[in-house]
Design brief:
The complex is a heterodimer of chains A (268) and B (272). With 268 residues, chain A is mainly α. Chain A has helices spanning 6-33, 51-57, 60-93, 99-111, 114-128, 134-159, 162-170, 175-204, 207-212, 219-229, 234-259, 263-267. Chain A is built from 12 helices and no strands. By secondary structure, chain B is an all-alpha fold. Chain B has 2 domains: 1-40, no CATH class; 51-271, Orthogonal Bundle (MetI-like fold). A two-stranded antiparallel sheet of chain B has the order 1-2. The chains are: A mainly alpha (268), B mainly alpha (272).
């Protein structure tokens, strides 16, 4: 049917390769450029060096930003996972009225433009006197990543046979025990995926953080501020590290889900 | 027994009300309230009077439309090509689409500075091939912003479109062929209409995301292509005019939610 004549087939292949190249080539170019010895962003790099990595790891402000990003991501991703996981379990297994609106509310941070969430949180936190506080940052990152948790675990819980839990209850297990011994072990791959997604989401968050973080610098916030002022090749090293981090995190998710045979349902 | 399971939802519900719903409500309040006078529309009157707001709105609409169109032109053939691949090929192509989706927007935007800059890959190639003598400026203008946004948003269109395309039964197309329809007719009369709901839904989604885009225009526009969100940044962080910012945010929020409602209807149709 489509691409039945050699001519249309070739055209379609070319268009497909162009699309994939459009998505991936810019990222692939960043990697060799981060090892450039030159200050200007000339391609191909005139020589190789590790100077931009040295500049990054030798700069205490970058290292501080790294520590802030890591701790915010670690705490807020766990908070999003616990609160979002419990909530989506209640949504899928419960029968109380208002489940639809509640789920819509939890997904809202994904739908509302992030700039609006940022402004609302800025105004709200300013009113509450929490603008620029660590707590404000944690709470903001938590609610921003709840939708990811709900999406990933929502599918997993729906696919997990409810009768298995009922058997546990009928045998006299309490719900915390059922959770720990029956539900969690079965959902472990998806829980891990949800946690990784929430962690990446928080680690990469830039808009809300720029508005409400005050004196706290995270890696994306610092990167964003530097990019607006001037292009500094150190950013190329940071970008490469972030690409490597994403690839490794996704590979871990793909490995764990693939082993559990759940890769396909989470991908598409 | 009714009402079971609410206890699981309650903690998150409380957090959402305090940390998300209340701030949004407060912002809406600021947009329509004046101290001592109560309800007012004066913050909106202010918007109509200043030509800068209309210019920003024009920028936003133009960039959003062109970036969305570019997404369709690049994304549809890509999804179609992926559908025709072997299982293995599909997995590879799919991971190449999903991976950029998860890489930080900052990194993906910055990558375009590296690629499109005066000494970057694109300008080097253009000059080497003799198409231009001087480097073409792609950055810090509308063209750069549009390219960057189209790139960042492409997976949002390709992933649902691909999902819809692989659901189409090949036998349907074979049936059309066995009845004597030429490939062109099969595509336009059978295949394309079946992908239309997903295409429309994906297009709307990309358009919504374009309207509220902040990072890419700020970096690739270099301040020369202000879009709504960059204007909002100025009104909050530089010349504090919170009521004005709240008023613009409210309009953007309502427009987004309206388009999102249309998206949901189409998306359900596409999944059915």
């Amino acid at each position: 049917m489509i691409g039945d004549t050699p001519w249309t087939r070739r055209l379609l292949t070319a268009a497909g390769f162009f699309g994939l190249a459009f998505l991936t080539v810019p990222l692939l170019i960043v990697i060799p450029m981060s090892f450039s010895s030159a200050r200007a962003l000339t391609f191909p790099p005139p020589g190789l060096s590790l100077r931009w990595y040295e500049a990054f790891f030798g700069d205490s402000r970058w290292m501080e930003a790294m520590a802030t990003s890591a701790s915010v991501a670690a705490i807020s991703s766990v908070a999003a996972l616990v609160l979002g996981g419990l909530a989506v379990y209640g949504l899928r297994r419960g029968n109380f009225i208002g489940r639809g609106p509640a789920e819509g509310n939890f997904m809202a941070p994904l739908i509302v433009p992030t700039i609006i969430t940022a402004i609302a949180l800025y105004l709200g936190l300013a009113k509450a006197g929490l603008l620029g506080s660590f707590l404000g940052l944690l709470v903001a990152h938590t609610i921003l990543n709840v939708p990811l948790v709900i999406m990933v675990l929502g599918v997993a819980i729906r696919e997990f046979d409810h009768r298995i839990e009922q058997v546990a209850w009928s045998l006299g297990a309490s719900w915390p025990y059922t959770m720990r011994k029956v539900v969690l072990p079965n959902l472990a791959p998806s829980v891990f995926a949800a946690w990784i997604f929430a962690f990446i989401g928080s680690f990469d968050e830039v808009i809300v953080t720029s508005f409400i973080a005050g004196k706290y610098e995270t890696v994306p916030k610092k990167m964003f501020n530097e990019l607006i002022l001037e292009v500094n090749p150190t950013i190329t090293a940071v970008a490469t590290l972030l690409i490597a981090f994403t690839v490794l995190a996704l590979a871990a998710v793909a490995f764990i889900l693939g082993r559990a045979g759940k890769l396909k349902q989470t991908l598409v | 027994m009714r009402g079971q399971g609410f206890g699981f939802v309650a903690p998150l519900l409380v957090l959402m009300f305090v940390a998300f719903n209340a701030p949004i409500a407060y912002m809406l309040g600021l947009a329509f309230w004046e101290k001592g006078r109560g309800f007012t529309l004066q913050h909106y009157e202010g918007l109509l009077e200043a030509p800068v707001y209309l210019r920003v709105l024009g920028n936003t609409m133009r960039v959003a439309l062109v970036a969305t169109l570019a997404n369709v032109v690049i994304g549809y053939p890509l999804a179609l090509w992926m559908r025709g691949l072997s299982n293995r090929g599909r997995m590879i192509a799919l991971s190449l689409v999903v991976l950029p989706f998860w890489v930080s927007i900052l990194v993906r935007t910055y990558a375009w500075i590296v690629v499109l800059g005066n000494g970057g890959l694109v300008n080097r190639t253009l000059q080497w091939s003799g198409l231009t003598d001087a480097p073409v400026s792609f950055l810090y203008n509308e063209l750069g912003v549009t390219i960057g946004m189209a790139n960042v948003l492409l997976p949002f269109l390709v992933l649902p479109l691909f999902a819809a395309m692989i659901r189409i039964d090949d036998r349907l197309l074979q049936a059309a062929a066995s009845l004597g329809a030429p490939p062109r007719t099969i595509f336009w009369k059978v295949f394309f209409p079946l992908t239309l709901p997903a295409l429309a839904a994906g297009t709307l989604l990309v358009f919504i995301l374009c309207l509220g885009f902040y990072v890419t225009p700020a970096i690739l526009g270099g301040g020369r292509v202000p879009m709504i969100s960059n204007l909002l940044d100025t009104l909050i962080n530089q010349i504090p005019r919170w009521e004005q910012a709240a008023a613009i945010s409210t309009i953007l929020l309502i427009v987004t939610l309206l388009i999102f409602a249309a998206y949901r209807r189409l998306d359900r149709k596409a999944a059915a």
